[in-house]
Specification:
Blueprint lengths: L5 E8 L5 H7 L4 H9 L4 E9 L2 E8 L2 H8 L12 E3 L1 H13 L10 H16 L4 H20 L9 H12 L8 E5 L3 H12 L4 E5 L3 H10 L5 E3 L4 H6 L3 E4 L19 E5 L16 E4 L5 H8 L3 H55 L5 H31 L3 H10 L29 H8 L1 H12 L1
Parallel strand pairs: 5-6, 5-8, 6-7, 8-9, 9-10
Antiparallel strand pairs: 1-3, 1-4, 2-3
Helix pairs in contact: 2-5, 4-6, 4-12, 5-6, 6-12, 7-8, 12-13, 12-14
């Protein structure tokens, strides 16, 4: 895949969208999303990121308009105000902010960096990432690591799991230490929730998971977990729990009203995406259901402690953003220059071969004479392309992508269909064609190929 092109992005995230809208935008898994995007006209690369708080997609196209069209129906059931469309530079900066934790519900949280890395691995496995997105994503991950190593952005940051525990502590009508707690889900978020509950020393802590072995493993790894269970006895588990934190990856509700008939006074905090708890359960007497949107007030209080670090990270992103843009400019200019020299090299080899053939027809040539002809041709190419080379580098520095793209189209070499004869093997006869060589008729047709392509391109433009 070429590095030339532009990135277009789309995001449905907690800062604009509700939990329901993020859930709607995440209806397909990332593998399905990138496969669908790669089938769109003009799309050469694709990437998707889905977490509890966001659903995003990015594509690379030669034309930004193609990128916008490819992403138009990314979230068809989400209101326009909740969907953020991003151009090339906005997409690059946004990816860095996401990796650094500046776009997270919990400012500076660490989980997003691991989620981004796993999404990159998934895209690599799908073959959807080329050099353009590779550079952008590796830069974003680099920024995320720098932010956490060089600033205090994640000091005191709470995970969604610990934010859920803070919310429970604030709203329970009795000390949380006296509560019986249930965590549903033994994945990354469930583990964080279990650790947060264990740290406040709740009276009882049970972890339930579809695969019981995973829950049992977690109960052995985290001190303070009293028991592990499957999801089959959910009614019984809920009947004895005061606090329930759900964090599974189930595409369907794990808990609904039918499970809560004997639950009594129960607080359910759903941090899963898509949701684990049917919102209708909130209508039952004694049952209180919270979701990710309700954690905003908890996380806002902790965010104030890291504002200074966030400013440092913003400065860091500005610096890394400029470096990334400069790298893209160099790469795109170098591609155009490389194409230009490759096209010139082909013409040189062909014409030198023809000239030497004619000279040898007049008498034997020495190696030194052949080298003189080659050197003359090289010197001509160097002098003729010196000014265009400087112009292309200047165009890249000035963000003149029209000139860069035009140069790449004009000089895109397409010379793999025929071979250039070696001057040493060429016959002086115009009718004898050595193996791998061409007749004069073939040569005359090919001689016009490059100018014809240039004329056609200029006419199209």
């Amino acid at each position: 895949m070429r590095s030339a092109g532009v990135i277009s992005g789309v995001s449905v995230a907690h800062d604009r969208a509700s939990v329901q809208e993020i859930e709607s935008a995440s209806s397909d898994d990332v593998e399905t999303v990138v496969a669908r995007l790669l089938r769109r006209d003009g799309v050469t690369e694709a990437f998707s990121l889905q977490t509890c708080n966001r659903a995003e997609a990015y594509v690379v196209t030669d034309d930004a308009a193609d990128g916008r069209r490819a992403l138009e129906d990314f979230a068809p059931d989400v209101r326009d105000g909740s969907v953020r469309h991003m151009d090339h530079e906005e997409s690059l900066r946004h990816l860095m902010r996401v990796a650094a934790g500046l776009e997270s519900l919990v400012l500076g949280e660490d989980q997003i960096l691991g989620q981004l890395k796993r999404a990159v691995d998934a895209a690599h496995d799908a073959g959807s990432i080329g050099s353009m997105l590779e550079d952008a994503l590796m830069k974003a991950i680099h920024v995320g690591e720098r932010a956490r190593n060089e600033t205090a952005i994640n000091e005191g940051a709470v995970s969604l799991g610990s934010a859920a525990v803070r919310l429970a502590r604030a709203e329970l009508d009795h000390p949380i230490e006296d509560a019986r707690a249930l965590v549903v889900g033994a994945g990354e978020m469930g583990t964080l929730a279990a650790k947060a509950l264990a740290s406040v020393d709740v009276a009882e802590l049970i972890v339930a998971n579809r695969t019981v072995a995973h829950a049992e493993y977690l109960s052995r790894e985290v001190p303070g977990i009293d028991d592990a269970a499957g999801l089959g006895g959910m009614d019984t588990l809920l009947a004895t729990a005061d606090i329930v934190i759900t964090a599974t990856s189930s595409p369907e509700y794990v808990i609904d009203s039918s499970h809560l008939g004997d639950a009594g006074s129960t607080m359910l905090i759903d941090i899963a995406q898509p949701r684990d708890v049917d919102p209708a359960a909130d209508e039952l007497d004694g049952v209180c259901v919270h979701d990710i949107d309700d954690l905003e007030t908890v996380t806002d209080r902790t965010a104030a402690q890291r504002e200074q670090a966030a400013k440092q990270v913003e400065t860091m992103i500005d610096e890394e953003f400029d470096r990334l843009l400069a790298a893209y400019k160099r790469k795109r200019a170098d591609e155009a220059i490389s194409s230009m020299y490759e096209a010139a090299e082909h013409v040189k080899r062909r014409e030198v071969s023809t000239a030497i053939s004619k000279l040898e027809a007049q008498g034997d040539l020495t190696d030194e004479q052949r080298e003189t002809v080659e050197s003359l041709a090289d010197a001509l190419i160097g002098q003729l392309l010196s000014a265009p080379t400087k112009s292309l580098r200047d165009a890249a520095g000035d963000d003149d992508w029209t000139t860069i793209q035009t140069a790449m189209r004009l000089f895109d070499p397409g010379f793999d269909d025929y071979a250039v004869p070696d001057a040493r093997e060429s016959s002086s006869s115009q009718t004898d064609v050595p193996e791998g060589g061409r007749s004069d008729i073939d040569r005359e047709a090919s001689d016009e190929e490059v100018p014809r392509r240039v004329i056609e391109q200029l006419s199209d433009d």
